Amino acid sequence: MSIAVHIGGLLTSFIVPLVLWLIYKDRSPYLNEHAKAALNWQILLLPGYVVAWIIMAIPIIGFLGGLLQLAVFVINAIFCILSAVAASNRQPARYPVDLNIVK
């Protein structure tokens, strides 16, 4: 299930990590830690996506928003996959920044 938290974050942003964290936070300390890490990472990336969408709405520089969104997605994909692999090996998640928004 901890692998699903990270891959779900890649596919649905914060929705899958949030739902799985709410369901399993009291049942499994291991899954709780992975879900919190994935949820914190997805919340951290959300402003990047919002800024990209706003820039894409501006006709002259909209392509820059597309490039920003692509960059955020690629970074997200890399770290979600690395964290899913770490979870499969029963290791802690490997996100570069953990702001501890969800504690």
Automatic annotation (TrEMBL):
Its main location: membrane. It is a multi-pass membrane protein. It holds the Pfam family MamF_MmsF. Keywords: Membrane, Transmembrane, Transmembrane helix. It is found in: Membrane. The chain crosses the membrane at residues 6-24, 44-64, 70-87. This is DUF4870 domain-containing protein. It comes from Garicola koreensis.
